[in-house]
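Below is how a single chain appears once it has passed through the pipeline. First comes the sequence as given, then the structure the pipeline wrote out for it. We keep one example in the README because the format questions we get most often are answered faster by looking than by reading.
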Amino acid sequence: MTLKECFEKNGLSDLLDREKEEKLTALSKLLLEYNEKVNLTALKTEDEIYAKHLADCAFLVRYLRGGDLLDVGCGGGFPSLPVAILRPDVEVTAMDSTAKKLGFVRECSAALGLGNIKTLCGRAEELCRPPLRESFDAVTARAVAPLPALCELCLPYLKVGGAFYAMKTDMAELQTARRAAVLLGAAKAAADGYELICADGASLRCMMIFEKSKRTPDIYPRRYAQIKAKPL
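Resulting structure:
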């Protein structure tokens, strides 16, 4: 299955033009090559990467309004890199605590000529201070932590009026984070479910969306040991 066929099956083909298709295909090849040196993904074939990394991350693009996006715990650059390719109007900051993973993000950015992505190395709970605090139009996280913990790590970076997009697989997880979201300034929360169609079948995905209506109290985020031991 080609990248174009994968996007067509998932209803995402309108996001592609020839240049974006070429860059996403090149990103897949770069990931497979780099993965031989540094373990970035368990996926071993282009078909898997097209669906489970690129198409999966592309769903986020439909929700973004533009502006500045922070990807917390970006790992090897997903969704940071696909978003930067598909939405050149979005300024992406890829944050992770592992320098080797961010090295891949920078290499890809240079190889693909992406001028709208930068990297930030450190832990989310430690970097959340001015000028980063409450400075982003959107924040996202994918496969990082349980939703209440993600809210505490991500919502403090978000401007009032912005949105946090948590990429998850279980719609029911939203209920576990409602109290945390309200405490952190996001009274409005919703979940959109959709199917990700892969070569080996379909699986459920969901986008958890939190709209920030007031500032986050200065005491958050706490140290990660506290976040983990006593979720909001």
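The chain has nine helices and seven strands.

See the next section for the split statistics.
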